[in-house]
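lol ok so funny story. i was supposed to be doing the assay writeup but got distracted and ended up predicting the structure for this chain instead. priorities right. anyway since i did it might as well share w the group, maybe its usefull for someone
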Amino acid sequence: MKKIFNIALSASMLLAGSTACDDQLDVVNPNQQTTLTFGTTSSELDEVILACYNRIRIEGTLARVGYLYDVVAGDEVNSYSDNDWWRPYDYCSTTSPSDGPDWPFRDWYYTINTCNQALYYLGNSGLDTESDTYKKVKGQALFIRGLAYYELATYYQDVPLITSYEFSSLSDLHSPTNTQDEVLDQVEADFAEAMKLLPKRDEGGEWTKGRATCGAAAGYYARALMFRHKFSEALAVLKEIIGGTYGTYKLLDDYGDNFRSTVENKDESLFEVQFLDWGVGGSDMEWTPVNNSKSSSQGQALESVFSGGDYGGGWNDLGSTPWLYQTFKSQKTTSGTVDPRLYWTLISYEDDYNSMSGYSNTAYTLAVTKHVTTGAHKGISVCKHTTARENLYQVVPAIGLSCGVNIRLMRYSDVLLRAAECENEVSGPTQQAIDWINQVRGRAGLAGLKLADFATADALFEQIANVERPTEFGCEHGRMQDIIRWGWLYRDDRLAQLRKHSCTYWGDDEKVGVMPSSVDVADDDPFSHWTKGHEYLPIRDSNMDANPNLRGNSANNSTSNEAFYEGYNIHPVVAGIGVQ
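and the output, tada:
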């Protein structure tokens, strides 16, 4: 009662003009958190880390366009719908007239800001820097920030590098543009430190169910190194992953288990983005960072983009190029059947499926009697990232962010094939590179390669780049990143090859999945539309207007990036390997 009386008296004196005892009014509500008090405990720090994970599963990051711009820009997938929304990204020619190219830029910076916030809170938490909690929080924040900047650097080339959460003035927010090399230097540093801080997936618990581990950081560190042709350094890291330094990884017996919603976070996965099945989460579609909802559906929309027509009922936008389909069909298993990975990549009709154990010509519970086509121009529909082969629904239960299939961002098979590529670049061709490739082929039931069949490193690279990677990772994020790092757009024979890979017939049932005999008779040839510099997405004009220190990239200026490849070996096309 005395305290209440003193506060009331002080209030009366303040109203009368006196300044005495005004400190008595500074009462802090212990039940209301503020930015000054939040982030001092382990549980609060973990909430910030969970917010970092939350940012990687929205529209612009990995739930739709942030994943699919890379997919459609490559030579495995084309835009087949009447809706031309995706075509500028398929053609690598967008000049940023719409919001689309801005969404990954926007959403990855939301992610980076949350990571920087976590690191800021951690630095002021008073936690022992050698404690497990400190290491785990910092390691996860660095991994997710490294992932964000890797995506930004490979999508937008030169972008602002922001690593602080403290801003003293509005002008501090006008961050200058950094070069791609400067950004990738930070990416490598973040992943390298995260490798030392994070636990192995062998620890169990949440570390086997979607949290970033030292193995995930090591895998992405190798990817970042390979983007700048640091093959010797990347090979050392990949060998450590294979040797178990960062945890136990192995190929799953069934390739399809990498894409089922009912079998997730298993031994082959170095890192995957977590999504909830429709009906498990809420019903609100959380497309952007600003429409947060506690009733979020927490699903991905890749299924809606790929499915459509009588099968799935989605938007029917993107489908396979004939080249990818023919690459699958070009080799048989040792049992004489079609490559089983085709079943989980595309919804094609194959007689072999009727006799292969565990396979059938069905999709979304319906009988498949011919190739399932996407859009008015009839590309073969993509199965990967959907529930088509699980036969859980006849149609997608809700269009939009509704699919619960986790996206496996990096798998152990990628480690093996990247190790083979690096080994080939450093010393190839070698038996060690062949052995790593044959592990992946063996899981699919294909005959092993023989070193004697590859006289040069160029020949083995051709096999890795245009046979092994497309059949193992077809329609997965990363193909365009590979095309950029390999320098194919800036070598005439490779650009001509890309034109063949991506060309297609449109709107003819008899030609679905059939490669045109040449680009001259094709109905469309996306890489013929490519303009130098437009392998990257442009930075939106409104962003540069808002930030006077932000400059455009090669896509904004239509300038060549040939200088990037000076001193790098761009492999020539080797005839007779794969589907030419």
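DSSP finds 20 helices and ten strands in the chain. Residues 1-30 form one domain.
back to the writeup now i swear
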